[in-house]
## 1
Amino acid sequence: MNIRLIEVQDAENFLFLSQVIEESGMMLFEPGEKQLSVDEQKASIERILAVPNSALFVAEKGGDLAGYIAAFGGKVKRTSHSAYLVLGVHPDYYRQGIASKLFEKLFQWALQRGIKRLELTVIKYNEKAFSLYEKMGFSIEGEKVHSLYIDGEPVNEYYMYKLI
């Protein structure tokens, strides 16, 4: 397995990976909600790569994209030391250590960039993801009450952080 920065030419494969991961129902976007063309995805990748405190790493296994972790850095001076994270792993690659390896790569990158705080949110009932985040050193900072509506029902999220 290879963990690397995404490249613009990965856009089509990344779109496919994102769609499969969103089918889990545990991501911000509803399954099928995010409708990007390959060109729009390329532009999005270019924007992320152009920002020094943002990154998008992919896990490549057997020629396929198996997962990703994105870090979106703070946009103003007072938050430039922090980054909001989004993680996704293709279900065919669960329990193979991909998420942990993606986090390890991101932690190295963050240290090199002087990023001191990492943040993420997780749906309160997503116990597998919550356990992973705790294992990777994240702590609950608070609970976002009724932050999402899933299938017409209010759902809470935990706000988690890690200082590095």
## 2
Amino acid sequence: MKSSIRTATCIGLVAALLATTGCGKKATGQVVAVVNGDEITLDELNSELNGVNLPPNADKKLAMRQLLQQVIDRRLLAQSAKEQGLDKDPAYITQQRRMNEDLLVRMFAKKSADTIPVPTASEIDKYIASHPLAFASRTRYKLDQIRFELPADPAPLLKALEADHSLDAIIARLTAMGIKYQRGNSALDSGTVAPAALKQVTSLPPGEPFITPTGRVVAVSVITGTEPITVPAEQARPLAVQAIRNEALNSIGEKRLKEARASGKIEYQPGYEAPEGKAAAAK
């Protein structure tokens, strides 16, 4: 009986020892390092290397060793954060879910892009001819622009701005409301804006501002001048190819999203339903 107890105790001690030493993990083969039992693989290191723009004459082996040290340092700090329970923090869980979803969407886009055929010469010529704002008639619109961050409740401000028809009037309102802003010159490239949106902007009366929100930051601009942008022939065709592929990829994404919405089961808490009418148009 005592022998059995001793045997069980020895097995338990061996198991505990293996646990504290990373279960015998070794930095060999595809494993380039082991950090407190946590493996760092060659695939991970190569992924890090792909995100670095190395000069052609760089020592790749040395660069990988340097990158590995950065990965090890990051892994050690992450392990320390876990020891403090930060991986159980609701804020971490929320951000991790979003990062995972973003990664999956990017991988879906990449996989979809691989299925898009290379456009033919006639398709490229047709695209260039049908998109003059991006090629033959491409234009740079010079802008006088102010930028500011939206307050916590932006509705009153955005409603008030509808009555202001000049940049000076908007600046006066922001100043009266205690909202800080930055003013400077900017530009709008007709080749990077949807034709319908560009038509709305260019049809405004002279000096009439237009608003372009980007997250919590809002840009209010006035067109002050224009200048043509020449697109050399050797650049036009590659640009057209990329644009054709982007449109095809967007079409695939929109189709898949439509199918997912049709087949998915979505339940809203009252008050959080999808906006309709003017609210949807504003979005």
## 3
Amino acid sequence: MTDAGPTLTTERLILRRWRDADREPFARMNADPQVMRHFLRPLAREESDAFVDRIETRFGERGYGLWAVERRADGAFLGMTGLAHQTFEAPFTPCVEVGWRYAAEAWGHGYATEAARESLRFGFEEAGLAEIVSFTPPANAPSIRVMERIGMHRDPADDFDYPNLPAGHPLRLHVLYRLSRERWRNSG
């Protein structure tokens, strides 16, 4: 892993490439049933490490990805936020998704919103993306609030069954939020 590539900075956060030291707190976070309650299941350490490897590979391919998020005040690893290219089968794919995942102790401080706003700025201004989406199960009210705070909009007609979850799974239905570069520019 490398520190090379885009590093983004906000008032309180650093969004950076992954370091080996991030793997342990990330694995702990991914094993937490509370953090993973809107996903299929918590991840084993090997699965979490493989996820970091995929994230880093995608940085190399696209020049952006899911950044490790560090608090500027003390260097603490908080979680991840960034841009992920999605190609699963859905009416709106391929697409770029803004996504986040934080350790429970980092919840409620506005970190996801702050980092997601910076990810959108990078996506529209530096990566030249025309649209960025985000999605989650309807029960994930905290993430939906982040999507709304960063200016994304939902059309219920766009809601979809996430194909990576089995039919009948209670989290299969997902809401889709979108933001175009034009709408983003006009909101500032």
